[in-house]
């Protein structure tokens, strides 16, 4: 399972990219606003210069022709840009047309395995079930990831399930166990995956014991 960062903050992306474990980025208008706004194209192109992998950028048009035109324009910003299109009638039709023309689509705001199957047939490269938002309303978000993966595998469909709206490290484990191809997460969740108090205690103890051992060696040398 590949790990993507779910943010439009260039600073966060620069910091996380240094760890060498991030292979893509997902953005949306909420994340763009949270990161301080600015020209969306500039932000996305800057991200493309930091992470060499799929960078998702959201399309906002609400009709098929508008979506197709906007998606082609956005996809032209950089070869790594993947256009994000919400799943509804217009989104599905636009995705069918775009995928036939080789434009990569991340079908977003997916909340059921039925929607995932439709996105797959429309040719979306990535299909994004929103786990946390389903959990928020009392549904089992990870079950949608697991069902979507199972359906794609059962029919040998080439689309990739991108587990999105992940809120904590247990979501990441759940996505991996469910067979998601990709998990996208905020930087805070990535840091949560990394940190463990026993690792910190272990490092402290090794440093203290190395100091003790060196001291013993020094006093043995003096005798
Ligand atoms: C990613 O593609 C989604 O836009 C993002 O994960 C949504 O996360 P949220 O539900 O925490 O806003």
Structure summarized in a few sentences:
The chain is an alpha/beta fold and 223 residues long. It has helices spanning 10-17, 29-34, 40-50, 64-75, 89-100, 113-122, 131-136, 141-154, 169-177, 187-194, 197-222; strands at 2-6, 24-26, 55-58, 81-86, 105-110, 126-129, 160-163, 182-185. Helix 4 (64-75) packs across helix 5 (89-100) and helix 5 packs parallel to helix 6.
Keywords:
elongated, 223 residues, TIM Barrel, alpha/beta
Describe the structure.
It is a single chain. The longest helix is centred in the C-terminal third of the chain and has 26 residues, at 197-222. Helix 5 packs parallel to helix 6 (113-122). Strand 5 (105-110), helix 6 (113-122) and strand 6 (126-129) form a beta-alpha-beta unit. The protein is α/β, with parallel strands linked by helices. The radius of gyration is 21 Å and the shape is elongated. The N and C termini lie far apart (57 Å). The protein contains 11 helices and 8 strands. The protein has one domain (2-195): Aldolase class I (TIM Barrel). An 8-stranded parallel barrel has the order 1-2-3-4-5-6-7-8, surrounded by 7 helices. The structure holds erythose-4-phosphate. The site of erythose-4-phosphate has 12 residues, from helix 7.
